[in-house]
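We treat protein structure as text, and this decision shapes the records that our systems exchange. This encoding replaces a full spatial description with a residue-level series of whole-number codes. Below, we set out a record of this kind in full and without editing:
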Amino acid sequence: MSLYLRFAACTTLLTGTLACAAVAAQGYPSKPVRMLIPFAPGGGTDILARMVAQRLSETLGQPVVADNRPAVDGLVASETLVRSAPDGYTLLLVSSSHAINPAIGRKLPYDTLRDFAPITQTASQQMFLVVHPSLPIKSVKELIDYAKAKPNSLNYGSSSNATALPMELFNSLAGIKTTHIPYKGSAPMLNDLLGGQINLSIAAAVSALPHIKSGRLRNLAIGDSKRSTILPDLPTIAEAGVPGYQAVIWSGLLAPAKTPRAIIDKLYQQTARIVLAPEFKERLVQLGSDAVGSTPEQWSEFIKTEIEKWEKIAKIAGVKAGD
């Protein structure tokens, strides 16, 4: 075959492939879409995922069905996505654990950067340092003093490594030791915290705020480097006596690698439009979160940066997979 004919054949094949992808995107979705949620129902990630799924159902014209897979800090949900067909009918709303898992050296059945197609970061959520009201602790300083006076007497709950590692960073920077009690989601962790079975947590705002407002949890500080819009009098952990502390929990939407770019773009445009709509943004603020709606490229770069960031923090705090 002549060079010209080969070029023409390749051009025809490429054009046909692009045309098929475009047609697939135009007809997408033609059936229900499954959104995997890596944590138990009732937690912060679950609440946000269901808010997004409901509105995506409306804009896409097909049901977007929530499917909770709460196990191993999101590993089971992530592996389920990787093994799914790259056709846009299975999606995953991840949290910070998606970057923390490789950062702490956890053995994963997938490559965090290679095996996923980023769609958009949906939100950045505040985290609060909260204690059970039965504790004689009303400030970060009192917490540190109490923990130093009674080493290993306090235990903290986490719903994933996305909340455990921020607490371990606090322990490291404050020079204290507390015992880690892991849970499969925010809801069961908060149930035990509210019942006094555990003492404290650095919890996601979405799930913790109702209990803070009711007085069933005592809020000591916010994890971010800036104060909360809805709780402006609450100091940051850094302001309250732990310089250099900063942690938030984020969420975003992923598809399997090799999902057609036209479908990724459609999902990005629809999801970003949803989370950046004034009414949705205001709802997120009330839940202690900020809307993001980044491009697939921005979201991909953010994940890379987060892995690098938490690798450094894990080394400082002495945290590794299996702890």
Observations:
- The chain has two domains: 29-124+249-317, 127-222.
